[in-house]
Write a structure and sequence with these properties.
Layout: E1 2-4, H1 10-13, H2 18-24, E2 29-34, H3 49-56, H4 76-99, E3 103-108, H5 109-116, H6 119-127, E4 139-146, E5 151-157, E6 162-165
Amino acid sequence: MLIENFRPGVMDRLGLGAEALLALNPRLIYCAISGFGLTGPLRDKPSFDIVTQALTGVLSVNGEQGRPPVKLGLPVGDMSGGVFGAIAILSALHERTTTGCGRLIDVSLYDGTMSLLGYLSQLAFLSGEDWRGRERGRAIRIGDAESRREHCRLRAGDDGDGAQAE
């Protein structure tokens, strides 16, 4: 198994590309993780977590409405590559037990992070509504409060659920 995280073409220039190594060892599982994948118009562009968060829209759903976007505290763009890469590798290992063949796995940080937006991206595309900030859907953030023991975030739902701690 080989896992690499270079821009497309770097491993080929080093003589370690998927085609060359799979020819030497057809059982090899070769996982290439890059910002935008091995194909497509952005394949040669470098990417960092902040780029992935910005281009996928993750920045736009974090923070407050009417204020600038806020970067997530976790490097979700980078983490998506590791998570989806691991899932793909496990699938390829299972496949190899049946077929005896390895494969090339192409993991895009952009694609993985976009998928994590889930219903938010669907609602934005289908409704045309502005889903930026945390106040969206049925739960409306009211505010933060401090108690003697901990910090609380309160929100109310308009569907009869009433106030609830977040």
